[in-house]
Write a structure and sequence with these properties.
Structural class: mainly alpha
Radius of gyration: 33 Å
Shape: elongated
Largest sheet: 2 strands, antiparallel
Organism: Rhinolophus ferrumequinum (Greater horseshoe bat)
Strand content: under 5%
GO molecular function: phosphatase binding
GO biological process, one term: ubiquitin-dependent protein catabolic process
InterPro entries: ARM-type_fold, TRPC4AP
Number of helices: 41
Helix content: 55-70%
Keywords: Receptor
Length: 797
Amino acid sequence: MAAAPASAGSGADRGRRAAATVAAWGGWGGRPRPANILLQLRQGQLTGRGLVRAVQFTETFLMERDKPSKWSGIPQLLLKLYATSHLHSDFVECQNILKEISPLLSMEAMAFVTEDRKLTQETTYPNTYIFDLFGGVDLLVEILMRPTISIRGQKLKISDEMSKDCLSILYNTCVCTEGVTKRLAEKNDFVIFLFTLMTSKKTFLQTATLIEDILGVKKEMIRLDEVPNLSSLVSNFDQQQLANFCRILAVTISEMDTGNDDKHTLLAKNAQQKKSLSLGPSAAEINQAALLSIPGFVERLCKLATRKVSESTGTASFLQELEEWYTWLDNALVLDALMRVANEESEHSQASIVFPPPGASEENGLPHTSTRTQLPQSMKIMHEIMYKLEVLYVLCVLLMGRQRNQVHRMIAEFKLIPGLNNLFDKLIWRKHSASALVLHGHNQNCDCSPDITLKIQFLRLLQSFSDHHENKYLLLNNQELNELSAISLKANIPEVEAVLNTDRSLVCDGKRGLLTRLLQVMKKEPAESSFRFWQARAVESFLRGTTSYADQMFLLKRGLLEHILYCIVDSECKSRDVLQSYFDLLGELMKFNVDAFKRFNKYINTDAKFQVFLKQINSSLVDSNMLVRCVTLSLDRFENQVDMKVAEVLSECRLLAYISQVPTQMSFLFRLINIIHVQTLTQENVSCLNTSLVILMLARRKERLPLYLRLLQRMEHSKKYPGFLLNNFHNLLRFWQQHYLHKDKDSTCLENSSCISFSYWKETVSILLNPDRQSPSALVSYIEEPYMDIDRDFTEE
């Protein structure tokens, strides 16, 4: 913290500033060169030495240079601010100066969010640039942090109004001047201190917005457990404050992404996991634990997520908050929303307000107009959507964290799922109106639209909630749970234990559960919709884990298989992401299910349709290999069953007949191994390796493993690349051992999804990696000596 300055008029002080001024002018005989001064200030800002603040210049010099240099009097105001903000000041004059500075910067910030920003920031927004260059940012940081200083055992205090002015000026400078936000992010003590300013409702929004921007560029994630009295701070937030606080939490609980694709490889992830084990929990994990330790935190999030529009805060406080955001220029979304409302009339609303268009300004620097308009219902809905977006994201991240089971239990207990079910039609999947609010420069179908983003975040939450967890049955209502029981009874199979254990008081109410509602909108979705991928992922997560005949039949009865086949075959879907999600869902829906294969054959009832289907499968095995795996596993099970219904399906189904052919299996096997390498394995394509292993495990069961390896060798030679494929496969299997033998979760998933014990997976890999060249089931037996390359080091430090 800088020491209190000497009196503005002291001789020593004037002498030091005069010397600095002379140096900046290049000597006593030189002419003033403002460009050189600005350059030296910039260098001082970067190095911390030389000219760094307005206080290093004489007031006379600043006055003389102000008009020709177009500094708008900002350096002089900073000189006065420095003199009136010392430790023993009453800050009254200080606040008056801040009121003079604020409009000079706010107008530029207003222009910044409404213009194309094509020109350089220094030339387009000179006021904020000069303010920062003459040390304004650092001075405001010192002023804001004065309450951290004790004099004779008493803490210094500054008013909320003054804090608000400082925060507003800082934010406007961050908006318009490059590098300011990053510099603030490096001041960790200041970032932590900002959290304490959120205790006051008067400064909450300004503080929250500044923190959000700072954390967005901060290299290292802050730790919430370092925030003083975090539990008390969060517990005292009202619901609106908590929703806005979730914007900050979104940055603090998500693992930081380097943005480098190489870091997403399994090699890199494994190396990072080893490193993390030695370092302990990550900052994101620590932050998640800190939040979950706050009494009532998850319960309040669930209430926010399921709150109806009519239950939101009254119109007066809502409009006050919107005005705060507008004045504060939080982001283009809120600004655009207000602009949209300014031009929209609603005949049904009773509330009216003056909305300020950009351009006009009052003495306090805030825009104003005399145009009056009514508050439309669409604004109320948008307000609620904006809140729910942030809350659902935080809940989704917590659901995927280390405390997943704890979060699952709380989310179920606080009835998040039935609450979302009640909001589904009126808010989450509501029909777009002509007046729906969207981002400036976008349309209602753009992925950036808040409506679209809410739907995607909702689907991601459902996916995380259902994935490999028995609480997934909370997505149904009581009648639908009874239907599952009836399906099991009719098929003469035991009921799923998780269905029996489901607490009926926590399930969805109404005529339809959330899963059924999702299926209904899924089938109506346009072919080009971006939702198709997320919808399929959410439904697939319901089927993941140990295969349940009752779950499959529940979805088959609702026409899901026919819908998927229509999208793959008749609409000839081109999106790789959507195709992959549909193939994955189709595989889970059909696996081991004779009725599903009968339905498939009934829909794909011509050779032409079947050829289109095969074309889609073969166009990208990375996308379709999970379906290939499920059909291969189903074929193996059906062949070992003695049942007329199964025999009929085996004799009639085109897909089963196609997969049963050895040349087909070998073609899949060759391509699956050929499209992946250890260095390029990711969470997305590692399934290709596991599918190739399934084919070979089933061949081993039939004592045909040597045959398959011999055929692979022949295919290598026919492609003129002897040893290339089998060496690659050998390396892949070595990695497989490293990756799976130390991760319980992954191995459990493999076992549950394939119904093959993990011990058989491990045995098969060990047999294939047997170094004995005399073994007929060892890969090395089929790699000729000159082409042997199996000891390559693929570890990543």
